[in-house]
Amino acid sequence: MMAMRNGTNHDGGWSAIGFDPDEFERFFREQVDGVRSIVAGEVTEPAVIRDAVAEVFLTTVALARMGMLDDREVADWLPTLAATQAAAARDRAARPRVPDTATPDDQPPLGAEPLGGRKPLSVDDRRTLDQLRWVIARRSTQSWRANP
């Protein structure tokens, strides 16, 4: 596994990569080769490698915006994040796919056929998930307003 570089951020933390495009670009250019080599060790398809590398950096931006990277060295968290994304990409690629033989006229309704080898969702399941989504959105909005 390739070692990650332990660069330093101008403000002493990594939160700037979530907000400052120049800081993110510098960080990306320093780390992309290491992340790509970790992902390529798990996945062989170039498109899947690109997607997994992009997901690593999108997750990094999200974590930086939440302030979860401030006191940590890159070598402590980026290889783990890259390996986790690579394993997830490998697992997704290994799942059997449902053949797409339906024509637009006889396309089953959304959620009526198994995708990725999973059980189809019933109407009640979809309704429950929709209700949960709204509860979670409402709670996160309330939390955000309480802690600006």
How does this structure look, described?
The chain has helices at 21-40, 46-65, 74-94, 123-146. With 148 residues, it is mostly helical. The protein has a domain at 15-96: Rna Polymerase Sigma Factor, Chain: A (Orthogonal Bundle), CATH 1.10.1740. The longest helix is centred in the last third of the chain and has 24 residues, at 123-146. Mean pLDDT is 75; it is low at 1-12. Residues 88-124 are annotated as: Disordered. Residues 89-98 have a biased composition (Basic and acidic residues).
Topology overview:
Elements: H1 21-40, H2 46-65, H3 74-94, H4 123-146
Helix pairs in contact: 1-2, 1-3, 2-3
Biased composition (Basic and acidic residues): 89-98
Region (Disordered): 88-124
Number of strands: 0
CATH architecture designation of one domain: Orthogonal Bundle
DSSP helix count?
Answer: 4
The CATH class of one domain turns out to be: Mainly Alpha
Estimate percent helicity: 55-70%
* Percent strand: under 5%
Task: Return the string of H and E elements.
Answer: HHHH
Mean pLDDT, all residues: 75
Measured distance between first and last alpha carbons: 40 Å
The outline comes out as: flat
CATH topology of one domain: Rna Polymerase Sigma Factor, Chain: A
Q: Low-confidence runs (pLDDT<50, min 5 residues)?
A: 1-12
Short description:
With 148 residues, this protein is mainly alpha-helical. Helix content is 57%, strand content 0%.
What characteristics describe this protein?
Rna Polymerase Sigma Factor, Chain: A; 57% helix; disordered N terminus; 148 residues; mainly alpha
